[in-house]
Amino acid sequence: MMKKYPLVTIITPTYNRALFLEETIKSVLNQDYPNIEYIVLDGQSTDNTLEVVKKFIGKIIWDSHKNMGEVKAVNKGFSMANGEIIGIVNSDDPLLPGAISEIVNFMVANPKIIGVYTDWIKTDKDGKEIEKVILPDYNYEYMLRKHNCTPGPATFYRKIIVDKLKGRDDRFRYVSDFDFWLRAGLIGKFARIPKFLTTFRVHPEAATIKNKGFVMAMEHINLLNKIFSLPNLPPNIEKIKSEAYEKACEAARICRGDNIGTKILISLICLYYSPLSYIKIFIRYRLEKLRKLLK
Questions:
Q1: What angle (nearest 5°) sits at the alpha carbon of residue 74, between those of residues 130 and 172?
Q2: Structural element, H or E, at residue 116
Q3: Which of 10, 193, 231, 251 would give a disulfide with 220, using CB separation of 3.0 to 4.6 Å?
Q4: Burial zone of 149 (CB within 10 Å; 0-12 exposed, 13-18 middle, 19+ buried)
Q5: Quick one: pLDDT at residue 210?
Q6: Interior CA angle at 292 toward 290 and 293, to 5°?
Q7: Helix (H, G, I), strand (E, B), or coil: what is residue 52?
Q8: Neighbouring C-beta atoms of residue 209, cutoff 10 Å
Q9: How far is CA 239 from the centre of its chain?
Q10: Which H/E stretch holds residue 241?
């Protein structure tokens, strides 16, 4: 049985996020939960990250390595983690007060749940609230069918699941977290805690904003190629394959960026994987053109 105060490991990978890192570290260290192991992994940042980290030596486990990307850094953190519960807290997304206590209490009370996520607050680069985001309750089939990565920032897992899945798949740069949740969801259930306990900061340097293009677009499609090639998928999952690919192709088109060559290539690839969605898009496009002509 899980102890009253199981060790919780928080992992924060960071690279050139000194502007936000101190606030995030403090948000973890100032939690009211008494048993936290905090690992901060720096990819040899070229800004003043080291100066920030030095303020907390003795309170955090800090390691610096050649920049190897977030996924490998997270996996390194997984290999270092001793906690029964593990959470990833991005270097620009502070936790809100009381978050870890709420999460642990829920997981102790619900031992069959393998991971939890919470509602969150979207903030601007200065940490000012933009909006409160209420997430849907966990539903694996919905998440896959709609290509909707339901768990939000700072999702927490039981270490046994992290070990069983051998961490994140480092072949993915942008959707490794979604891939992890989809694989984990075939083993057990996640749950939503309907409280605002985490934040998500929107700023120009965020990867989801900066790096749209072919690689990001294709990862959405390759993720489904991987999931639907797994053995012994439940029949209800196999039945939603067509709709899942349709939504993944929509995500790919959103992520392809503005380069005309990439747009054409991704469109052709999506036409192969989801021809029905392209027929719908073509009809909508023609109807819109006709509507404008008739004005």
A1: 85
A2: strand 113-123
A3: 251
A4: middle
A5: 55
A6: 65
A7: helix
A8: 10
A9: 26
A10: helix 241-255
Query: Tokens 């999952």 correspond to what residue?
Result: 237
CB 121 within 8 A of CB 200: yes
Residue 1: predicted pLDDT = 44
The pairing of beta strand 85-88 with beta strand 113-123: unpaired
Query: 154-211 pLDDT, tens per residue?
Result: 899 999 999 999 999 999 999 999 999 999 999 999 999 999 999 999 977 665 545 6
47 C-beta neighbours (distance < 10 Å), count = 13
Residues in the chain: 295
Compute the distance between CA of residue 218 and CA of residue 198 in angstroms, rounded to an integer: 29
State the Rg of the chain over Cα: 20
Reported as type and span, the H/E element at residue 77 is helix 70-80
Helix axes 241-255, 275-293, angle to 10 degrees: 60
Please name which of 3, 45, 53, 48 lies closest in space to residue 24, comparing C-alpha atoms.
53
Q: How far apart are CA 288 and CA 295, in angstroms?
A: 11
Given a contact cutoff of 8 angstroms between Cβ atoms, the answer to whether 51 and 18 are in contact is: yes
Report d(CA 178, CA 151) in Å as an integer.
Answer: 9
The pLDDT-based confidence of 282 (bands split at 50, 70, 90) is low
Element (H, E) at 63: strand 61-64
CA 272/CA 265 separation, integer angstroms: 11
Nearest to 102 by CA among 119, 125, 81, 124: 119
Is the Cα torsion angle 152, 153, 156, 160 positive or negative in sign? positive
**Domain 8-207 top-level CATH class:** alpha beta
Q: Given 3-state DSSP classes, what are the helix, strand and coil percentages for the chain, each rounded to the nearest 5? A: 45, 20, 35
Q: What are the residue ranges spanned by the domains of the chain?
A: 8-207, 212-293
